[in-house]
Amino acid sequence: MNIAVLLPNWIGDAVMATPTLRALHHRFGHHAKITGIMRPLIAQVLAGTPWLDRTIYYDHRSRNPDLKLAHVLRQLKSMPLDTMLLLPNSFRSGLMAWLSGAPRRVGYARYGRGKLLTDRLHPARHGKTWIPTSAVNYYLDLAYTMGCPPESRRPELATSAEDELRADRVWRNLDLWNASRVILLNTGSVRGSAKHWPAAYYVRLAHKLVEDPQNTVLVICGPAERQSALWIERAANHARIRSMAHQNLELGVAKACIRRSQLMVTTDSGPRHIATALDVPVVTMFGPIDPRWSETYHPQSINLLQAVSCGPCGHHVCPFEHHRCMQELSVERVYAAVNRLLHEKHQQVASAA
Fold it and tell me: Any alpha helices (H) in 63-217, and if so which ranges?
């Protein structure tokens, strides 16, 4: 039996798909080959997890012919496929499933692709309004259609031994080996400026955090946030406030760095989901997005949402240009949430000892 799963394109969505991959593996892994179809970046996210037997790379935006639909279809037809599960909602993904020749094609009937599917689900709605549903449950409902009840809703990731060794070098370069507690600040979000918390607020938060001599603050970043991370580090001007702006890390190494931290403060972004899947305590600052869309079922997490009359609006850029939902989310409130999680973690360690 051959099953193919088309994975989401975004890091956070791919992480929230891991309970579905786990459920498929537990249900079919002994008598089926499960193939994941994904962007190369998503393969780095899932590296080290045991649920897929094969990976096919696909990115319709790439100019590389090996990542194009025609090449993917040739590989799928050579299996041949029994079932194709679509986690993205796009019409393009429905067309891929139909062209693959898979006799069973499972997905949500959205964007006019319903007739291309054999097993169609419909997202929950109230009138014309979508009911906020975590992507974790959204994907698991598809797996349930295939006879895969969830064993857990917790996202899960792993790191490789090689990436852990490379993360060791990063820790040495940043002189973090002797740090009692490393707290990560993640400033980025790729889907528009509306999710961003002001850089000056990160500086103030970092200063408050290092008032405790146990804390060292590390600002993490991808290529798009490198200048912001460097500005925060320089503006903070403190020996225990550092950034990864000078590091050029592959995603696997970044995962290993996140795993060894004690807490992350973050916007709603991919690194937030990586941290939750690696069981790192997380404080997430939400602005325009309803937290129910990305619930992670992580017991050591706090979601902060500032109540404003215009939100949560769902826009990537503030339509009113005042950005109140993030501007009014105070440093003091975030700091209190950090201390609460650190205290809870300390209590857990003490009770286990």
Answer: 69-77, 91-100, 135-145, 161-173, 199-209
What is the predicted pLDDT for the residue at 190? Answer: 65
Write the DSSP assignment of 219-233 as a string of letters. Answer: EE--GGGHHHHHHHH
Let me know whether 322 and 226 are in one domain.
yes
Count: domains in the chain = 2
Distance between CA atoms of 262 and 300, rounded to whole angstroms? 11
Whether residues 117 and 188 fall in one domain: no
| pLDDT above 80: residue 65 | yes
Calpha distance 334→36 (Å, rounded): 38
Looking at residue 106, the DSSP 8-state letter turns out to be: E
- For the residues 81-101, what does the mean pLDDT come to? 98
CB contact set of 243 (below 8 Å; sequence gap of 6+):
218, 219, 220, 221, 229, 230, 232, 233
Summarize pLDDT for 158-216 with one digit per residue, the tens: 999 999 999 999 999 999 999 999 999 999 766 667 788 999 999 999 999 999 999 99
Percent of the chain with pLDDT over 70: 99
> 113 and 192: one domain?
no
In a shared domain, residues 181 and 320:
yes
Q: What are phi and psi of 156, to 5 degrees?
A: -150, 135
Backbone Cα Rg of the chain: 21
Q: What share of residues in the chain are helix, strand, coil (percent, to 5)?
A: 40, 15, 40
Could you tell me if residue 120 is inside a domain?
yes
Structural domain boundaries, residue 299: 161-352
pLDDT at 345: 87
Looking at the fold, whether 130 and 227 belong to one and the same domain comes out as no
Q: Do 47 and 126 reside in the same domain of the chain?
A: yes
